[in-house]
TrEMBL record:
GO terms for molecular function: glycosyltransferase activity. It comes from the Bacteria. Its EC number is 2.4.1.266. It is an enzyme of class 2 (transferase). Keywords: Glycosyltransferase, Transferase. This is Glucosyl-3-phosphoglycerate synthase. The gene is gpgS.
Length: 406
């Protein structure tokens, strides 16, 4: 991927393999003296027992420019929280584990419920939201990065490349989105991005016409990557979805709130692999089926908010156009994989396209039945306006959990 193509919508920062190893880290250490850099790790307890996270921590332990690491821990009981504290204790940086299931954090959640500011169902979006709130409450971080805890091919250079565009005070970027090729076990991966999002955006443009928002999303080489870095000044007004539409939702917020020149995408890895979700053809409430529905709804809602009128007829046309577009792209993916010595199961790929096409229509039905649905978690500015003490009390709750179970 070492080229220098620019699409004209968002700046693309490539890895041209011309920098010496560690050069970016040396610059980041200089920036970090006056611009603190933080990292957010949303984690399930089960990921502590997986193959990826121990290596991620080994790599992070060598990163000297990080001011604080905020770990959001989901689906853990008291003993598992205690274990997580010890597990992450190998990190030499200042770090904190937010036990989202603790009685104290549940009390914070109850206060939000009482205010009508429910942060939604448990999931990555809710986890990230609480971590962002904690980061805002600390008031000492200029740049916050987010990445997943299941990256099997993690190297600390990924983080350096991700945060550099927003940490460099001479750059104009407020948001940086990571991209990479999804390759693992000699296979071309990334089915949802390749087989759903890319052909869906092509189909939408054919069915509803040109939209600047569609051109913006199509400019991203990997719109579903879970790797972001942001200047923290934008965080209090950030509205993020609580469902699988998190990544599209953050990009949509950047589109809504920021000038185009404030957003960039940056190549962070030559080879990226992480945990794979099952397709779940028989159950649309789990796996890639649930993910595909949530992603489609996120895109439809944003287009509707910008004035696009949807109907059952449009969604039927969209399904047919998507299906043809996806099959055309599949031919390109097959050629690309073969030329690079990768395997690609065309039968399985086509089997994936079929439920994705159905889920586009299902997402359309859900949207038409409840077009006013707002699955976004309230912004932290709104929370602060409703309860000025809540963020302070959340920090105190996290500290009390640490003291009790340390």
């Amino acid at each position: 991927m070492a080229d220098f193509h620019q699409n004209g919508n968002v700046a693309t920062l490539h890895n041209l393999r011309t920098n010496a190893p560690g050069a970016l880290e040396a610059e980041l250490a200089s920036f970090a003296q006056s611009r603190h850099i933080g990292l957010i790790l949303p984690s399930l307890f089960s990921e502590l027992e997986g193959p990826a996270l121990p290596n991620i921590l080994d790599e992070l332990a060598q990163v000297g420019y990080l001011h604080r690491i905020v770990i959001g821990l989901d689906r853990a009981d008291a003993e598992q929280y205690r274990h997580a504290r010890a597990f992450f204790g190998r990190l030499p940086q200042q770090h904190v584990v937010i036990w989202n299931d603790s009685p104290r954090m549940k009390q914070i959640g109850s206060r939000l419920d009482a205010l009508g500011l429910n942060p939604g169902e448990r999931g990555k979006g809710r986890n990230v939201w609480f971590c962002l709130g904690y980061t805002i409450a600390c008031q000492d971080t200029a740049v916050a990065a987010i990445h997943d805890c299941d990256i099997l091919t993690y190297e600390r250079e990924m983080l350096a490349r991700l945060v550099y565009p927003v940490a460099n005070p001479n750059f104009p970027y407020q948001v940086a989105k990571g991209y990479y090729p999804r390759v693992g076990e000699n296979r071309m991966n990334g089915r949802v991005s390749r087989l759903l999002v890319s052909p869906l955006l092509i189909a939408l443009k054919r069915v509803i016409g040109d939209r600047d928002y569609l051109d913006y999303l199509r400019a991203f080489r990997y719109p579903l990557s879970g790797e972001f870095a942001m200047r923290t000044g934008i965080l209090p007004d950030l509205r993020i979805p609580s469902d699988w539409g998190l990544e599209i939702g953050v990009l949509s917020e950047a589109w809504r709130n920021l000038a185009p020149k404030s957003v960039c995408q940056v190549e962070i890895s030559d080879n990226y692999d992480h945990k794979h979700q099952p397709l779940s053809e028989e159950d649309a409430s789990t796996g890639l089926s649930r993910m595909s529905v949530d992603i489609c709804k996120a895109i439809f809602r944003k287009l509707a908010a910008d004035g696009t009128v949807f109907s059952e007829e449009i969604f039927r046309s969209l399904k047919a156009t998507y299906y043809r577009s996806a099959l055309d792209l599949l031919e390109s993916y097959y050629s690309d994989a073969r030329m690079n010595g990768l395997t690609i199961d065309r039968h399985l790929e086509e089997r994936s396209i079929e439920p994705f096409a159905q889920n586009i229509v299902q997402a359309g039905h859900v949207f038409l039945e409840n077009p006013a649905e707002t699955p976004f978690i309230p912004t932290w500015n709104r929370v602060h306006a409703a309860d000025p003490d809540l963020m302070r009390d959340m920090r105190a709750a996290v500290a009390a959990d640490e003291a009790e179970f340390g």
